[in-house]
Write the structure tokens for this entry.
Amino acid sequence: MSYYEPLTYIVSPEEEGIQLKTILKSRMQLSRRLLSRLKRTEKGITVNGERQYINVPVRAGDLIEIHMEQEQSDDILPEPIPLDIIYEDAYLLIVNKPAGMIVHPTHGHYVHTLANGVVHHWLERGEKVRFRPVHRLDQDTSGVLAIAKNPFVHQHISEQMKAQEVLKEYRALVHGEIQADEGTIDAPIDRDPEQPHYRIVTRQGYPAVTHYRVVERLNGATLASVRLETGRTHQIRVHMLYIGHPLIGDKIYPPEGGPPLPEGAAIDRQALHAHRLGFVHPGTKRAVEFQAELPPDMNRLRQALSSAANPANSHTIDYGMTGKEE
């Protein structure tokens, strides 16, 4: 049986005498589910190289190691799909997902997904890893996507997301010139009872908060930076429609009336791109950020809108954004 590189922890003098399970839960931050799984693994939890019960006291200088079994996604067919890899280490794979690509195989879509390409990539590298995306992007949304290489990493980033400690910043090209330089949309979202695959703003919905800033005002459109505080399905698309600025190219949530865009300003999907993703790296415990610039189709749309704009009414706002939560 093969294992991932072990997670390690050295007990400090101040921690001498406390139970091993306290170190595992409070210091190494293992979830109850993962801890239960490790207890059933042959050498899941060791102290100084020896398998140990979790209720024993530890001593200063003890080396605690967590060994997780290597897995692979046997139900996903490997497929040689080109990947735009932003970053990869023993814990994480960060990719720039193209528009039009589904993240995970679903009924009727068993191949040509991001998962098929990633599994093939890992097999080529000799890695046995299960495909675990930390979050999802819609098929027609491009940009930064994080994939965990083991359950510990997936758990840690998921918990950061639940605590709203993950930076998720998008770029969106929307209909109309947003007048306010920045703003917050606080409007609950739920399924449309008449069309369950749609989402709507409703008082009975789940809390949803979106922050936006104008990056550039164009001819009848705006390039906006959008930051999510919550992660509801279709949140950006629904919220921007709600304030009267739906995403350009969105076929599910199209604009209701309004002037047409200039000739040549078109895109065959919603103009939404996951621009930046930031979180605390579960392995190094350091803050990391990953970024992907606008893809060609959104750049072409931006240029078409910019060239058609009246210079007297169009300007760019530079916020000097650092990508840090405020």
